[in-house]
Every structure is written in C-alpha cells, then in structure tokens.
Amino acid sequence: MGEITSSSDGSVTNSSSSSSPPPQGLLERLKDYGQEDVFSLWDELSIQDKDLLVRDIQNLDLPRIDRIIRCSLRSQGLPVPTIEPVPETSVSSVDVRALEERERWWKMGLKAICEGKLAVLLLAGGQGSRLGSPDPKGCFNIGLPSGKSLFQLQAERILCAQKLAAQSVNEGSGGFVAIHWYIMTSPMTDDATRKFFESHKYFGLEVYQVTFFQQGTIPCVSKDGRFIMESPSKVAKSPDGNGGVYSALKTSRLLEDMAMRGVKYVDCYGVDNALVRVADPTFLGYFIDKGVVSAAKVVRKAYPQEKVGVFVRRGKGGPLAVVEYSEMDQSMTSAINQETGRLRYCWSNVCLHMFTLDFLNQVANGLEKDSIYHLAEKTIASIHGDIMGLKLEQFIFDAFTYAPSTALFEVIREEEFAPVKNANGTSAVDTPDSARLLVLRLHSRWVVAAGGFLTHSIPLYATGVEISPLCSYAGENLEAICRGRTFHAPCEITF
C-alpha cells in the first residue's frame, strides 16, 4: 500500500491509500492557526483532490490571513469615535464656485496631463450578475443608441482628455502624452476583461497604455474564524473588496511602475457609473490647487433613506471617513442642519477619488499593517450547502482615515453620477434604463446649449441624444457640430 509523500514544498508527489495522513509539516502549520479542520475529509479524497487541497493551502499566506481574521473579529463591537457631520464650509460647493475658478482648474489639469503626471485607476473587479449578465460589469451595454459598453465610454473619455490636453499646449499640433490606464480585475473577471479589450482593439487606446492587474482574495470564515470549505479540496474565498486595490498595487509593483512613468496623481473610480468623468481636468486642477493628498467628488444625498455612504468626521476635528448607510440609524439619516435646512449628513460618496502617488504608497503599507477588514455576513456555498459566513473586505474609502489632508469636491449628480447596479425591472433606481436616460438627458441639454434642435416621436423625457465622448468631454466644442442642426432622438452624435 502506497504512502503520501511530500517534497520540500509539501506537495503530494506519490500515490496514497485512504489512511495516509496529510503532509505533516503543513498540518502542523494549520494547527498553529486553528485551521486544521481543512483536512477533515482528507481520507475521502482522491489522489488528485488531495494534491489540489495541498496546493490550495500552500498558496495561502497563513500568518497574514490569521492576523487579518483575528484583528477583524476583535474589532467588532469596539466603541467607534463619535461621528460628526462634515461642515458645508469645508466642501467646495457648486453654489459658490466662480466660472473663472473652474476655468483655471481646467487649465491646470490639462497642463498636468500633458506633463504625464496623471494616471487613471479603474476598479473593475465586479461581475454583472446583478444586472443579469455573465460578463464583467464593464462589458455591459446600458442601451445607448451607440451600443457602447461602460468600458468603451470610459476609454473614449480618456482619449478625449488626451486630445484636449494636447490642444491646450500644442494648439492642435504635435504629439501627446498618453494617460496610463490601470485596470484592477478580479479572478472572476480578469480573463474576460482582457479578451474584451483585445476584441475591441482597446477602443482606440494604445495597448501599451493599459495595464491589467488582479485584486486579491481571502478565505471566507465562520463566526469563530474557521475557514469555510467550498469543496473537500478547496477553501471558499472571495475578493478582498475594492480596497484591495492598495495591496494589489503594492504586490504587483505597479506603484513603482507609476513612479517610473513620472506619475504624481492618480484618478481612481468605480466601473459602474455611466457618467463618470475619467481623467477630469477640472477635478485634477482643483486637487493640485488645494495641495492635499486625497480628494473625493461628492453629491448631495437625494433623500434621507438613499442607500449611499456619506462622508463624516471621526471624532471632533478627526479625519474624514465614510459611513455606510447600513451603519447609520434613523435619527442620523434624517437629522437636519437648522442653519441650512439641509441634511446634516448629506455628502454622498460616489467612488470618484484623487490621490497623490506618495499617499498611495503610505496607504498600501498602512492598511496592511492595521489588518482590520470589514466583515460582511453573506450566504456562502460550502460542502454543507449554502451557509451563513463572513466575507472579509477592505473598501477604497478606508484610505481617507490615513490622510492628513482631504478635500471634498461637490459635483452635480445629473452631470456625473449615473450608477448601474440593479437589473431593469428589479429596482426603480440605479438601473441601466435610469443610467441611459441620465446620459441622454444631459447630452440633449448640451445640444440645445450649443445651438442645436431636437425632434422626437416619443416624449422627450423618455429619450434624448447621445454625444460621443470623442466629440466632447463635458459639453465643450459642440457649436460646430450642433449649431443650426436638428437631431431626431434617440440618436448618437459623432464626427
């Protein structure tokens, strides 16, 4: 009867009988962390499955994962600092910004883009399952006349920002500096995302200016911190949240890559916003002008119960942080500022951020050192069927508590925030249909402002026109295309 033997790395290399024990060294390591139960069904596994299980365990950084689990579980129930609202005076509000100031920021941003100081960082690890699609969320077509995917809309905005920056200094002649696009995928979306870009020839971008990298995963655990087994030969794992971008940038050595390219500022955003202004020159110029290490675009909450996180201060005069809507009680969500008549907690986080590269390096080290992850109780597929367990995640906004200086920049919801989160028919908000209408209505206003006219066979509130991002970034330079012309909605306006 054969025996399980293991090489120096612990992998199974020989045949085995059902009574042969798992590799002793690996078993002892698991016992050190209280996770030896992963071998509980060892004797029932085939030779191949035993090898799969051993390799799965070897690929886990057990000391790090154990530290994360212990710190995260221990943090639950601890008192948190008092939450204070963010004063309206500390936010760059749309109401008080002058046209001259906006134009100055726009020019500052274009200059920094021309100098190669800006990189764009996309959080694209999510799948389109909630939208009824098997593809990565960025591949989704929200039904615009052009049929463009979210990825294509964003790529074309990068192309437009590059062109505007080149024109601002070269008067339309000469070359340009490419904006590098770093795209974080997940193990579930990486291959499909790469193939989608390849099949669409990178939407007009140069191949060299796009870098894909994967966020990490972390084992799902029970409430007492034990690994949940997805199958007898595999530990259940889930992505480590969009905040996993910091450690992923570090382990992929992409922070060094950015530095080598001369990047100073990083524009970071989520994939599921059909109106996102990628590489926004105005926001970049504002960020540079304020001299802060981090900034976020915010919109005012539409109503008290809106399911969005809001910016707060942790403790009196403490750092900015984001509190999720699920962490706020009714009294907080409905509290009114008596001086303004508006909600006290009104600044919604919409995942549109700007960071200095130096600060990203600090965060990548700081979050890893703290090892505190958010715990989300979820249904997890396991060897015992679907069970309740814990997924461990970090969020992109966790970085703000490390920032010595953060600026909040209010934007107009109808111009920059069209979330695509829920399938049509399952919700009244944040659907492909609602996002499409926001795009069409905004672009219709641009056409009219540029001297164009619209005709329509269905009510205008239900339709509109789409302007290609290759024509205009934010409604500028449309007079030559639109003035005196009539467009029948719905349609796409391009060159």
Keywords, separated by commas or semicolons:
495 residues, alpha/beta, Spore Coat Polysaccharide Biosynthesis Protein SpsA, Chain A, 3 domains, eight-stranded mixed beta sheet, 14 helices, globular, UDP-N-acetylglucosamine pyrophosphorylase, transferase
List the helices and strands and how they pair.
Elements (H helix, E strand, L loop, with lengths): L23 H9 L14 H12 L3 H14 L7 E3 L5 E2 L6 H16 L3 E6 L26 H21 L9 E6 L4 H10 L10 E5 L2 E3 L9 E3 L2 E2 L1 E3 L5 H7 L2 H7 L4 E6 L10 H10 L3 E7 L9 E5 L5 E4 L6 H5 L12 E10 H14 L3 E9 L2 E9 L12 E5 L2 H4 L15 H18 L3 E4 L8 E3 L11 H4 L3 E4 L1 E3 L2
Parallel strand pairs: 2-17, 3-4, 3-10, 4-5, 11-17, 18-20, 19-21
Antiparallel strand pairs: 1-12, 6-9, 7-8, 10-14, 11-14, 12-13, 15-16
Descriptive notes:
- Keywords: Nucleotidyltransferase, Transferase.
- This protein has 495 residues and is α/β, with parallel strands linked by helices.
- It has three domains: 53 residues, no CATH class; 339 residues, Spore Coat Polysaccharide Biosynthesis Protein SpsA, Chain A, CATH 3.90.550.10; 62 residues, no CATH class.
- The protein contains 14 helices and 21 strands.
- Strands 2-17-11-14-10-3-4-5 form an eight-stranded mixed beta sheet, with helices on both faces. The chain has a three-stranded antiparallel beta sheet with strand order 1-12-13, with no helix packed on it. The chain has a two-stranded antiparallel ribbon with strand order 6-9.
- Strand 15 and strand 16 form a beta hairpin.
- The N and C termini lie far apart (75 Å).
